[in-house]
Amino acid sequence: MSERDYMSEALALARRGTALTSPNPMVGAVIVRDSDVVGRGFHTWEGVKHAEIAALEEAGESARGATIYVTLEPCSHTGRTAPCADALIAAGIRKVVVASEDPNPLVAGEGLRRLRASGLEVEISEAHRAAAEKLNEAFLHYMRTGRPLVTLKSALTLDGKIAAPVDNSGWITSEHARSHVQVLRHASDSIITGIGTVLSDNPLLNDRSELPRARPLLRVVLDSTLRISTHSKMVESAKDDLLVATTSAASPDRVRALEAKGVEVRSFDGPHGRVDIRDVISLLGKRRCLSVMLEAGSKVNWAALESGAVDKVFLYYAPKILGGTESLPMAGGAGRMSRIDAIQLERTTLHPIPPDEFAVEAFIRKPV
Asked: Which residues are catalytic?
């Protein structure tokens, strides 16, 4: 195996932590001595131990004089565990190859400085940096901004419609595309929708991947006047995983009825008597939600985009055309009045979904 192979294996190990590490990052580690892999490890929140520690324990004395390939800079602070940088030094590791630095203010290069100061050789694997940063894009965004990474997801016809004016039975996209959505949900800490979607579709809006999670997917409903039914699927299935965001205009009796069902109700008074999604995102950030999916209707989508709350989009396109002026677009509302003022996207990636569908992943270009 080559050095590229060792780091690729570390990245594969890190991915095994999907939905199991938040609010920590996904990290994988591989220890190599004399071209043989002697230790492997990856982090999960429940397992507590960081990837480097798990790999060191497997390697034992073979770690002395070895090289460790780790997907993220080893930590240099004491949290739930002692610093990994110190453990690597004590184990006699000779060389540390990392794929990306950790922007956590408690680390932020200090782990690498500590390793170098103790005489260890440190190398950044530029060939794997992009893959490592993509793996932890939500964690990195949270550490740099203090806010969750918010992804707007929608299923559209080729002409950009999400709903017909009369009959919306059936699905826009295929089962294959919908299965991919569950992959995104599973990797998210929270999912937000609007009351319009709840009233029209009565969704569960849960993680149907059947894969393990470190914490429940927190479902959030934006409901300014508290119209959600206590008999809706979301309320009936609530198990400390449903938050309804409303305003002070909500009926106290309705609040009590929902709370009796195990629903958390919070008031967010925004402009024009509506919930301000930015305040909701701020609350989720305080609760250390790293990643948030927005799966809502036309009006909420536009309100979120216009407010600047959205960081990226994941749009699934089906080979269909609805046409007409009454079919709902992905983002309704007032919109922008001139093409020059259009919301700009960047870092666009196309994801083919055979045989005839595709998804567009792109980041919102934020003002500097």
From this structure: 52
Distance CA 153, CA 208 (A): 16
Beta-bridge partners for 124: 98
**What are the φ and ψ backbone dihedral angles of 317, each rounded to 5 degrees?**
-110, 130
* Residue in this structure with the two tokens 């006047």, named with its chain if needed: 225
Find the distance separating the first CA and the last CA of the chain, reported in whole Å.
43
CB 289 within 8 A of CB 337: no
Picking from 32, 28, 24, the residue whose alpha carbon sits closest to that of residue 41 is 28
The residues, any chain, with a CB within 8 Å of residue 305's CB and separated by 6 or more, are 152, 331, 343, 364
Q: Indicate the pLDDT class of residue 77, thresholds 50, 70 and 90.
A: confident
* d(C-alpha 130, C-alpha 136), whole Å: 10
For 198, the token pair is 């709840």
Question: Residue 341: CB partners within 8 Å, gap ≥ 6?
Answer: none
Joined together, the tokens standing for residue 249 give 């205009």
Q: What is the pLDDT of residue 135?
A: 96
d(CA 354, CA 157): 16
Q: How far apart are CA 123 and CA 32, in angstroms?
A: 15
* Residues 6 or more apart whose Cβ sits within 8 Å of residue 46: 20, 214
Crossing angle between the packed helical segments 84-91 and 110-117, to the nearest 10 degrees: 20
| pLDDT per residue as tens digits for the range 162-208 | 999 998 888 999 999 999 999 999 999 999 999 999 999 999 999 99
All residues at 6 or more sequence positions from 363 whose CB lies less than 8 Å from its CB, including other chains: 311, 312, 345, 346, 347
CB atoms within 10 A of CB 7: 23
DSSP code for 237: T
Task: Return the closest-CA partner of residue 137 out of 286, 5, 312.
Answer: 312
